[in-house]
Amino acid sequence: MRRLSLGLDALASLREASGASEIDLPSACTLAELAGADAIRVGVTDELRPVGASDLQDLRRAARVLELRMPATQSLLKVALEIRPDRVILAETGWDGRAAGAPLDLRAQSAFAHLTPVMRGLEEAGVPVSLLVAPDLDAVKAAHTLGADGVELFTGAIADLPVPERRVELERLADAHRLAAKLRLDLSIGGGLGFRTAREVIEAVPSAERIAAGRGVLARACLVGLDRAVRDLRALLE
């Protein structure tokens, strides 16, 4: 059965933007798990905003499985070693500068020097490490060379493409998926996945072990509630 990792970053962003202190991440975590989420994920930056240190501590106590998505920096390595998440996904800071949500560029040798110390620190602590990468054969090979436990293939650039272009990109995703499976890398997909896009993407990578979703589920939750939104997406993954 595919596993669902639910990102709660958007709730933290809404809390910060609105000043709504009633937004309680641990409570959302519990509701999501009861509805079928297999793991809870949050993204952090060096500034620890909008997800803060206290959020991480609270979520570590609340979540059965906690995933941390972060840039590969020494300050966040220290945070991760203190929190001890069940899994870390290393990524670049996103376009808005507020969370690590962009795929890593592994083409330059400097990327290896940048990532290796953080990966080593996490692995020595027994924390599995995946790399968020573009659905590209060279990126998957580079992740394997680096010694990552897994890859998360970024699908955010696929979801809104016109149909002919989307088909081409889904074929590239499927090729990257097959290579990751051949290299025995733990395989996830994530980025831009919601109720409109998830089915088509999942069909391109039928053996992906883990699906990461966030904003699409939380947007639907504004209409039908978090429990229903998670259950509806869970049903799409069967």
Description:
The protein has 238 residues and is α/β, with parallel strands linked by helices. The protein has 10 helices and 10 strands. An 8-stranded parallel beta barrel has the order 1-2-3-4-7-8-9-10, surrounded by 7 helices. It has a two-stranded antiparallel sheet with strand order 5-6. Strand 2, helix 3 and strand 3 form a beta-alpha-beta unit. Helix 2 runs parallel beside helix 3, helix 4 packs parallel to helix 5 and helix 6 packs parallel to helix 7. The mean pLDDT is 93.
Global structural class: alpha/beta
Strand arrangement, largest sheet?
A: 1-2-3-4-7-8-9-10
Gyration radius from CA atoms, angstroms: 17 Å
Strand content: 15-25%
First-residue to last-residue Cα separation: 7 Å
Spell out the helices and strands N to C.
EHHEHEHEEEHEHEHEHEHH
The tally of strands reads: 10
Low-confidence stretches: none
Largest sheet: 8 strands, parallel, barrel
Percent of residues in helices: 40-55%
Mean pLDDT: 93
What is the 3D form? Answer: globular
Total number of helical segments? 10
List strands and helices in order, with pairings.
Elements: E1 3-7, H1 9-18, H2 25-35, E2 39-43, H3 53-62, E3 66-70, H4 74-83, E4 87-90, E5 92-93, E6 100-102, H5 109-124, E7 129-133, H6 137-146, E8 150-154, H7 163-182, E9 186-190, H8 198-204, E10 210-213, H9 215-224, H10 226-237
Parallel strand pairs: 1-2, 1-10, 2-3, 3-4, 4-7, 7-8, 8-9, 9-10
Antiparallel strand pairs: 5-6
Helix pairs in contact: 2-3, 2-10, 4-5, 6-7, 9-10
